[in-house]
Amino acid sequence: MWKKRIGSILLGCCLLFASAEDICAAEKARVAGVYTKEQEISIYVKGIEGEINGVQCQIGTKADQGVTWENIEEMESPVKTLIMVDNSLSITQENREKINTFLMEFIDDKPKEELLSISVFSEQMSDVTDYTADRQQLEQAVKSITYQDQETYLTDVLYDVLDQEHLGTEDCYKRIIIISDGVDNKSIGYTKDEVYNLIKEKNYPIYTLGCVYKNNNTELENMFAIARMTGTSEFLLDEIENTDDIVDAIAQDNKIDHFRIRPETSEMDGSIKNVLLTIQAGNGEQKIETSVKMPLQAEIVEPEPEPEPKPEPVPPPVIEEEPEPVIVEEEAKFPLPYLLLIGGILLAIIVVVVILILKKKSHTRGTNDFNHLDQNINLDIRTEGVDMDKTVLVSTSNQHSNDRGLTHQLWEGDSQKRYSLCLTDINNPNKIFQAPLQGNIVIGRQGGLIIQHETISKRHCQISERNGKFFLKDVGSSNKTLLDGVEVVTEMEIHSGSKLQLGAVEMKVEIR
Question: Domains in the chain and their CATH numbers?
């Protein structure tokens, strides 16, 4: 009896252990890159255990979307890697030698077709070499790195790298390796939260190699958090004896799988939708879920069918009638004197008409006077008594005009439809912010529409126009963006009359 119970307990433990292994395996898989193209979506997934036997894709609530997959080693597009090296004097001599050894080993171990760029950074980043697969050129770039007495601001540099698409926009697997003494940012610059939000949006795997310098534990923890956020590994160079271990860990990226999804035409509306991949791999099922911007397919307007031609009526048969006999009348005969008299009268009438016409032309030639067509348009920018932080209305004025208070939009031309964005401060209606809306416009302390307020970020949010509709998204603000009381997490549609809140500033939206 006891033996059976013990056997049951052991069997239960084995099943729990096997279930735990399946859960851990499923937790390893994560999204390592998302790209939206004209008619399909690319998703890169890292950590799938076993050979893939089948994949099901669901977009929103619609299942059975078309999907194919391949390993990145089978792709025609090569892997692109950016290595960012902090070349300040805060990197000790011992760690400089380890960095040099690691870079040489990484270059020797990388696949032949992989493109690699090496850069150094302080307040800004400088490329030592462009993206290249030439080992000799890369090794020469490593030897040319020198260390300078300078301040290093990783937060601002990394934000610019991601925001300006340093790794390009083509569909391929991309990753970043950062070697530094930690995350530090300027007193006036991008915050860690802004950088973290941009990292989540781009989905790039980012590896971090940290260097100890004085009391920089907090800075290193902030940098290592970036690696954990992107599902990669962090390394402390001071505790690494063999840099080959770092090279081997990064080489696991060769196990990344690439999924190509072709949404149905009805799903290609440019909105943000949830995508669920159910992957049959090995002996189990793994699920990957992420948010993806759908392709935007232009609406195809089918021409209306031409109406079928109506049958032409059949004309009735023509009945030929006998022609009536032609009666030829004799010409009237006039005496010659009468003909001469009539001709003279007609000639006199013609002469009188010609004389009258010539007199009328000579009279009207000198009467056209254009001296009254005097029109002066003066551009009047009224600044007296106005706070220059508020909106300044630009108007056209004339001596006899009574509409000096009206606002006039100045456009370069009317060849295509244009829009104007107008934001009115709800708490101070005298403050009006207005700018043309063509394509995309960034709102913030620095951008296309500038609003100066301590709770508004440099680049707070962005409004885009697509096919006569307008969409709002937050571009990494510190104090959030609210649309009609709802926090903007993904892209949302915005209309005239909406209430837009940037930090502590509430505004009424009008799109003209």
Answer: 24-298 (3.40.50.410), 379-402+418-511 (2.60.200.20)
Are 477 and 194 within 8 A, CB to CB? Answer: yes
Contact 224, 210 (CB under 8 A): yes
Token pair of 196, please?
Answer: 């973290």
21: left (phi over 0), alpha (psi -120 to 50) or beta: alpha
Within 10 Å of residue 34's Cβ, how many Cβ atoms? 17
Q: Enter the tokens of residue 81.
A: 């890697």
Helix (H) or strand (E) holding 253: none
Cα–Cα distance measured from residue 349 to residue 153, given in angstroms and rounded to the nearest whole number: 100
Closest of 274, 340, 261 to residue 68, by C-alpha: 261
Beta bridge partners of 85: 120, 179
Per the model's pLDDT, the better-predicted residue between 63 and 397 turns out to be: 63
Of 160-164, 368-372, 467-471, the poorest mean pLDDT is in 368-372
Structure confidence by residue, pLDDT tens digits, 16-26: 433 334 334 34
Hey, what are 10's tokens?
């052991």
